[in-house]
């Protein structure tokens, strides 16, 4: 089509002087190669940038093509649902010239209509090939009619391969209709038979995708998605929900970290009024992943030219990858159906003759025109793929490992031996109990929580029982000993530090010697004068000291029972949680609770019997009882003497000769020799027996015995209580639960077991989802 009628398209075939002298940008366009040839007596022009001419057979080009091919195959598997894939996504508000930009990049004509034309994503795969130009169209279904993701992406051929560019527009139009009416067979649309079918009505928009693969000797290597234009309102009769549907679709695409956003902005409308720009900066506030493209520069008013030039220079609305500006055919040229080559030539001449573009420095001129944009995007996408590919491979491998693990956690889809499977579940469950209560899985959090909780309860039991020790004071209640009674009784050196520290927390009533003697007098019935019912008194005092043992024992058992209940509930959830829908989980939980209740009752009977038996004083541990009695008796007598002021005399008898004075040592020698002459041999230590007899000696003997027996008995008790609970309750759960589960679940009935083990709809759906994801990842591997 001739160009002579356009004032700024006038030129001579040798790049006349006007093109050589007008502005810096005009000079840079001298690198354009113009090839003039005749077709049917009409002059056609083909324009290319010299820098964009790269040997299609070069190593770099082949590597780039290989990377783009990998990306295309990954997208065709649907793995982008699971893995972040590099991609270019073209977005823009409605009527900003996005379709014209896609045409300039793809070299084919797209469908055009008034209002919104693109109603589903368009995937464009452009690839150099030495073979004849061809185009193939596919339909990719990723969602159902309600927008829910399909388990497996389905990609089908839509019609035969196109070898004539003029056939692409109609094929794409039909393909979009097929996407919007997914319930109809795709063949209907190839013949336009769908136009006669009223029901079901087409969708207004769809997330499913039309895929276009173009190959040829003059096709650049590029891969991108074109999305429906962002709209702020709908036409009469439209659905306002479409506004949000498109918005969410755009955000879903461009939010992915490896997405390069190609933001198309029209120069005939203020940037702030274009919704696509707001969405782009909403997901990428710093503009690191955005490449800006200005369209319709021929619509710029003279007053606003410099403003848009500042944007191109990246001085306004700055982006990490900067801005480009392209000029596409206007409505008149579209009506004239100028060729792609003519459109590119007019684009070059526009930028070389029009302000503010022709005066731009050379570095900014490289951002003018569709060819520069295509070259930039192709290189940038290839780089992104090369960088991201190792991570994609690793993520796929990790994802498959995780999927296999999660699939193993699900029950098998079918059971050939339901009875055997259920028995296996029961034995796995009870074996886990056995391992955990025996401490074989010491680093398992559940086992550790159970056993350490029981251990803490045992230590608390010990401390509580120690605090019930009898509180005897070896003086009369009316006496005032040196220091308080508590301090006087707080340091028996033969007891452990743990017992001594519990003295201040003892809960029993203090009993003085005169009270003990009074208790002895009350117990006398038929005894002879001078005799005391010492065993009866000791027995009663022992029983009194043990009255406080029941509460700590019960608290200990309740703690252990609570820990076991929590542990078993968690274990049932782990082993039978996937069978909640069939009632198996609830049944197992009910059986386990019943067994826990029965075992608890039996263990409590044993504990009560143990407590009752401890009320009968008995021990064969004679040596320990004797040692404790002698120690307590000496301890009480020492305090008693100190309270009566006799401690100084006794200490003098007990001191070694080295510390005695000469006179006192001579007097002791004379006294012992005199007694020996009367046939009474003795030592200085024996002389302390000459002190007056204490009328409270029977009481001292009784309290020393009772206190000594407490030391023997409480140690036995704090061992036996945990042993009974452990053997009759904690360890018994395993065998009891296994027997009850086998009987009450009726494992001999194959039909009953099959019902117990049937999959829930949730498990079926979960397995289906995991298998679909696994298939996508394996396809992409």
From TrEMBL:
InterPro entries in the cross-refs: Dynamin (IPR022812), Dynamin_GTPase (IPR001401), Dynamin_N (IPR045063), Dynamin_stalk (IPR000375), G_DYNAMIN_dom (IPR030381), GED (IPR003130), GED_dom (IPR020850), P-loop_NTPase (IPR027417)
Any one GO MF annotation of this record: GTPase activity
UniProt keyword GTP-binding present: yes
Pfam families: Dynamin_M, Dynamin_N, GED
Keyword Cell membrane: no
CDD domains xref list: DLP_1 (cd08771)
Residue span(s) of domain GED: 699-781
Domain Dynamin-type G: 82-390
A GO BP annotation: receptor internalization
GO cellular component, one term: cytoplasm
Gene3D superfamilies noted in UniProt: Dynamin, middle domain, P-loop containing nucleotide triphosphate hydrolases
Record's keyword terms, sorted: GTP-binding, Nucleotide-binding
Name assigned to this protein: Dynamin GTPase
Organism field: Sphaerobolus stellatus (strain SS14)
